[in-house]
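Crash report, auto-generated. Payload:
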Amino acid sequence: KNEVEQSPQNLTAQEGEFITINCSYSVGISALHWLQQHPGGGIVSLFMLSSGKKKHGRLIATINIQEKHSSLHITASHPRDSAVYICAVKVTNDMRFGAGTRLTVKP
Amino acid sequence: DAGITQSPRHKVTETGTPVTLRCHQTENHRYMYWYRQDPGHGLRLIHYSYGVKDTDKGEVSDGYSVSRSKTEDFLLTLESATSSQTSVYFCAISPRGTEPTDTQYFGPGTRLTVL
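Recovered output after restart:
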């Protein structure tokens, strides 16, 4: 079993819909990161969370440390949000990554 | 973009040949990482470096070696490439490595195909 599990693996939405991507982990962590991988392959960091909630534009990330669970929400989704979203947890010297959620937003 | 480049960006090689991938940074960050990304798997750590000549193994290090003779360059070598090493390889850098809040910055990736 992977230490970091994401769901769903694939998600298709219509423009304007509210999106939720989930991440569960089974190891002790010091922080959790959400990353975005563009269709061209580039990977960028969206959020780093150690507790609570963070918001950046239309993106909201939450974490529940006791339940070992995090969610990434996208409000008013847009076709340009189409990408792979990756959950990663910080474990001592390195990071462990989920397999990613492929989001497609149709106009 | 963080100043990270990878070379080559694409490579096709044959089984049994040696291959070296290069990661170059202009940020003077201490930590550098090599990952591979395969369908159905998350990014998996191959090796990382926490300073010049200081390296350590990651989760999937078998068949790979690394070297870091300068802060800015981190080389990944496949001594004798196998088809199972066909993958997309990403380099990443971070300033503080072990700090919980540290963020990693990723290079553009190298697509390697071993025939």
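Post-recovery validation: The mean pLDDT of chain B is 92.
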